[in-house]
Every structure is written in C-alpha cells, then in structure tokens.
Amino acid sequence: MQQLKTTLLLLLAVLVLTACGGDNNRNSPAPVTEPATGSGDEPAPEPEPRPQATITVTPSLGRITGADVLVTQADGTPIAGATGSLTEDGTVSITHDGTYTGPILVTVTGNDGATYFDESAGTNLPMGADVSIRAFAPSPLEDVGVTILTELAAQIVDKLEGAISAADVEAINNSVRASLAPDIPDLLTPPTIVSEDNISTQSLANDAGGVYALRLAALATLAAGEAAPALAILNQLASDLADGVIDGNGADGALASLSYTASDFANLFSNALELAASSLADTDLMAVARDLAVAIDDNLLQAVLDAGVVLPASVTVLIDASDIPVDVGGSTGGDITGDFDLTVSGEVITLGIGTEFSAIITNIVAPTPSDTAEVQKVIEESIAGLSNIQNLIVTIVNNTSDRITFDVSFDANQSGVTVSFKLRYDYVPAGTSPTDSGSDSSGDSSTGGDSSLASDAEIAALGQVCFFGGGPEAVQLPAFLTAEARTLSYFAASAGSPYENGQTATFVFSSSGKLFIDDVEVAGSPVICNGNDREAIWKDLANNLIYSVSDLQGSFNEVNVNSGDGGSFLGQFSQN
After folding, report:
1. 283 backbone φψ class: left, alpha, beta (φ>0; ψ -120 to 50)
2. Residues 6+ apart with CB under 8 A from 332
3. DSSP readout, 453-480?
4. Cα separations (Å) of 21 from 150, 209, 335?
5. How many CA atoms are closer than 13 Å to the CA of 262, on its beta-carbon side?
6. Which of 98, 212, 470, 491 has the greatest number of CB atoms lying within 10 Å of its CB?
7. CA 552/CA 558 separation, integer angstroms
8. Residues 326, 268: contact at Cβ < 8 Å?
9. How many other CB atoms are there within 10 angstroms of residue 31's CB atom?
10. 320 CB contacts (<8 Å, ≥6 apart)?
C-alpha cells in the first residue's frame, strides 16, 4: 500500500508538470459585425464584434469519414455554430461562437453513411448512429483528437456530480494518458490518421501523432477476430475500467469474453505494438515500438481522486473494492490477484471417524503461493476458533496463473479430543470451478495420494535424465520438502553455467511434482536414478538443464545444476 501511495504522489507531480490544454490559443477570424441601424440622421451605434473561434477535430478509430461532429459546453449546452461533418481526410474544422471559454465536449457520432477504417480488420467498417466517441477538453482548443482513450476519460467525467471544471478535465485526461499512453504529451493530441491508403506504407513517424496512432492500432489488434475490433476493445476496456483498474472485473464483478486477462494485458499489448509497427511504422518508430509500454499498476480512479477531483461515493466504493495489486508481468505463478473463488474441501477425523465436507467462498484475493509462511498465517487466521493447533503443514500443489492450490493438514484439541483435519484450499478465478481450471487437476483427492507420481509416458518424454547408470523412476516428494519455499544462493559456477556466483533464486517443490524457480514452473515429473532414493531429479526441457535436490530421506541440503546433454556439473544452489 505504501508503494502505491508513493507512486500516486509521483503521478501527481507528473500531472502538474504536464497539465494538458496547451496554450488554449484559438484562431481569430475577422470579427463579424451586425448591419448598422438607426433613426433619422443620427448614425447607428457600432455593434460589439462577435468573437469567433475555430476548432479542428481529428477523431480516430482509424480514419472516420462522414460522421457528425458536435461541440458543446461540458454540460451539453449548445455552442452556436459548433457542428460539422467529417470530410474524406477524416477531419473537420468548425468555426463557432467564441464567447464561451470553459470546458467543452466534442462528440463524434456515426450515421447511415459514416465509416471508419479498423486497423485490425484492415478495412472500412460502418459507423452507425449507435456509435460515438467523445473527448472533453479544458477549453475550446484549436485542435482536439478524439480517440478510444479520450472516450475512456469521458466515461470517468460522466461519473462526476455537479459542474465540470477545467481542472477536473485536465486531471482525468492526464490520468488516462499516464496509464495507457505515457509517452504522448497530451491525451487530446491529434493522432496521425491511418486508412487503407497507408496501412502498408510504414509512414507513421516517431512523433506524438505517430506514436498515438500506433497505440490505437495496437489496442484494436488486441481484439483481432472480433467483427469490429476497435469498437470491441473500447467496450471491453470501458467495462473493465469501471472500477479503475484493468483486472478483468467491472462494476458488478468478473467480466466474460475479454480479449486479455489482467496478468497478460501488458505482454499482449507489447506484442500488438510490434505487430502494428510492422505495417504502419517508419524505421525510427519501429525501433522504439517495443519500448512503448502501459503503466496499469495503479487505479485510475484513485489517481483522479488524488489529483483533487471530487468523486461520488458510488465511485469511491469501487476503488476500495479493487484496491489490490495486479500482476502485469505475464509470468506463471507469482502475485496472482483479483477476484477468486476459494473451495475448501476435505475430511475431519474424530475418534477414527472421518466426515467429508466442502464449502465455497466467493470473490476473495488469492495468496502468493511462493510465500508459504504468509499462506500459513492466512490459514491460521481462518481456523483461529480452534484450540491447541499442532502439526500444521501447508503443501503447495498448484502454482499457475489460473489455479493456486494448497493441501493443509493439522491437529486441533477440541474439548479434550484430538481432531485431525486434512483439507484442500483451491483458488480459481471467480465463476469457474477447480475442475474447470485445467491446472494440475489430475485426480488428486482432497487428502493427497500419489497422483503426483510421473507416468511412464511423462518419464519417456524427458529423454535422457540418468547419466551415471540406472533408469529413471517416478518419485513422491516428502512433505518436509514441499512445505515451504526456499531462497537459495548459487556458487561453484563453471563454464556454461546459466547462473552467476552469488545469484539468488526462490525454489518451490510442489507436492504435485512440479519445480518452480522464482514463481515460474520450469519442470515437472521428478524421478530418481539408479534406485537412489535420496535425490530427486527434474529435467528442464526448455533450457536443457538438470536440477537435482537432496536429501529426500533427511533434511534439505542442496540443488545441483547439471547440463541436460551430458550431465556435466554446472554449479550448486544452497542455503546461506
């Protein structure tokens, strides 16, 4: 939480330094005067000039043509003359009454003849009257870009109660920009227009308009396969960001049919940027496309609130509900957070008689599986009503992005009688069941069993594992080995070693048979060689490495790392 607060303070500083709105200059055509009127020989008084202003609107879903454009005051009050229609180049310049200087709303609405060029679909698509995108600006600027991102900001402005100030608009636009387009100077920057004429000419330059256009194309690419990808991703993000964060949850809980997940959004977006750049970007922009990123760790609504915008209670309650970290790294395991359902099942044994039970707790946060001590604390708190808890063992079974499972066993004294508990804590994304998740559901019973033993086929798929005689045999890992995560240090690095001396890594040996290093699954199917039941061996097929852990019959000793080709020794991990 402290890190979140620090980040938001830094964000606030950025908001002050990069406040949008430019210099608010407006074109000033020659003043329009009213015809002179008077009576008799007296000259009529000169009328006051009526100030005029011109705004050029550049919307983009790619290029939009034929759509209607309306500029109003922020509350929807009409501004005289502030209407127009997009031309073939995808822009329109509107001259209107310049007496109003407050915040404005620009709305681009489709009609029967309007089309937009969808960068992902690669073709012009109809833009009907039911489709509109908007942008709020702090004042009647000369140039306003209207995009997916300005529409997301507009939906936050919609949440405000009472009058909308220029400061509100600036803070909200900047919060969206800082999260989804941190490398452009202003959310209202007109993006370079993309159409069928330049889809393969690689003409987007490495400037604000080109970078903005590339980001919009990448967002559309995320929803590739949808009938209207740009509109689909707009609707998905709008629903997802109702609670302020990209977490797969909207205002009413988990969302279905998203083109991404909270854990893979950043990686998918990075890949989409490269894909879009391959057909749109010039050499300079292509060189930096991979470095363009998103900063979605923080809650947009919280950033808006901290910038001084007054949000109603109906919005702040959504912030509180989503005040959890989001894993955007895309790795397996790790800080998997969000809305999960927990199924607790198992058996309670009293005086030799077992009673099975199962219960589901919905919409909770899954713990971090690599921190077994913290998990144990959570479980202890959940069973705090029991007395004299002894022999508590927490064993990691699954550690994947869509399922976290722990086996828990302990004894408790209830009214002088010892009661034994053998439980399974199974966390899966809300709305699914443990058997739906597809992660390591290999028929384990709630009380354990030997389902973690590798099959003959799994062992055969490893290829050569035993380099010093004997054949591989499946092995069941002992409970003491799987009961906790171990942070180990590397030494004795030899030529070709994948690690350096002094490097540390966290090892988790799952009772399901999987080996995790720094929360990433690197191997499954542990075996022993030549009947040596003191050393379990895994083969990391992706990196062609052998990991050997000992001692299975005593206490943890070390992890040796060997070459997957000839078994040569590369180095060793051990506790400090």
Report:
1. alpha
2. 399, 400, 401, 519, 520, 521
3. SPPHHHHHHT-----SSS-EEE-PPPHH
4. 13, 16, 38
5. 30
6. 212
7. 11
8. no
9. 12
10. none
What Å distances lie between residue 462 and 143, 516, 526, 570, CA to CA?
A: 62, 17, 10, 19
Q: Six-digit token pair at 430?
A: 């809300």
How far is residue 235's CA from residue 238's CA, in Å, rounded to a whole number?
5
CA-based radius of gyration for the chain: 31
Q: What is the mean pLDDT of each run of 10 residues along the chain (576 residues)?
A: 25 27 35 44 64 95 97 95 96 94 97 95 94 97 97 96 95 96 96 86 90 95 90 95 89 84 84 86 89 86 92 83 39 44 78 71 66 62 61 72 77 72 82 54 37 76 81 84 81 89 88 80 87 88 92 87 88 86
The answer to whether 153 and 173 are in contact (CB under 8 A) is yes
If you search the block for the tokens 């590739």, which residue do you land on? 224
Vertex 433 angle, CA 430 and 434, to 5°: 115
CA distance 73 to 65: 24
**What is the structure's pLDDT at 7?**
24
Determine the Cα–Cα distance for residues 367 and 324; give it in Å rounded to an integer.
11
Please, which residues bridge with residue 400 across strands? 403
Pairing type for strands 515-517 and 249-250 reads unpaired
Q: Which of 326, 304, 329, 327 is nearest to 315 (CA)?
A: 304
Measured from the Cβ of residue 563, the count of other Cβ atoms closer than 10 Å reads 17
**The two three-digit tokens of residue 28, written as one number:** 């000033």
Q: Which of 490, 507, 488 is nearest to 499 (CA)?
A: 490
- The helix (H) or strand (E) run that includes residue 2 is helix 2-17
What's the pTM? 0.53
Q: Where are the domains of the chain?
A: 2-27+51-321, 340-429, 456-574
Assess contact for 108 and 120: CB atoms under 8 A: no
Amino acid at 61: L
DSSP-assigned letter for residue 441: -
